[in-house]
Amino acid sequence: MVQSSVPIERPDPPVVGKVTHHTIELIWMHLKEKLPTNQKFKFVVQEADKKKKEWGQVYAGYGYTKTVESLEPFTEYSYRLCVIGTNNERSEYSPVCTVKTTKEPLNGEALHKAIILDRKSDVERILDSVDGPRVVEIPDKFG
Predict the structure, then answer these.
(1) For the domain that residue 84 is a member of, what is the CATH number?
(2) Does 83 share its domain with 117?
(3) Taking every annotated instance into account, which residue ranges of this chain make up the domain Fibronectin type-III (predicted)?
C-alpha cells in the first residue's frame, strides 16, 4: 500500500541567531514542534544573490541550524527555507528573512593604516571608540 503524502505547510522563516561581521547563524528549531514526529525532514536554506537576482543554496541537511560564513562586513543578506519530506514532497519556500552583518571591529591594523594614509578623521574615530585604548596597544608590523 502506498502512503499518501500530506502536503507540507509553508514554514516560517529561519530565526536569526548570533551575527558577526563575517557570519550569520540561522535557526529553524521552531519547526520541530510543527512537523510530524514519525518522519525525518530535510531542510534547504537558500541565500539571495542580489547581483545575479537568483537564489543559491547554502545548506541542505537534517539539522536545525546553519552558520553561514565568509560574509562581507556590514552587508545585508536574505535567506529562505524549504522543508523536504521522506517521499521528496516539498514545502513552498518560507517568507524571506533579511539580516545585516555587523561592522568590522576596529583593530590595530586599521589604526596604523589610517595613520599611514594621513586620515585624521579615521584616527580620531578609532581612538574615540570603546576599543580605542586597546587598539593603540597593538604593535604594527615593525613591532
Answers:
(1) 2.60.40.10
(2) no
(3) 10-105
Determine the structural domain holding residue 112 and report its residue range.
104-131
Which residue is associated with the grid cell 541565500?
47
79 to 61, 91, 124, 125: CA distances (angstroms): 16, 15, 37, 33
The whole-angstrom separation of Cα 72 and Cα 110 is 17
Q: What is the pTM of this model?
A: 0.74
For residue 1, being part of any structural domain is answered with: no
Report whether pLDDT(13) > 90.
yes
**Count of beta carbons in the 10 Å neighbourhood of residue 124:** 12
Checking if the pLDDT of 14 tops 80, the result is yes
Q: What is the mean pLDDT of residues 114-130?
A: 76
Name the more confident of 13 and 112. Answer: 13
In the block, residue with C-alpha cell 560564513? 69
Q: Which residue has the cell 500530506?
A: 6
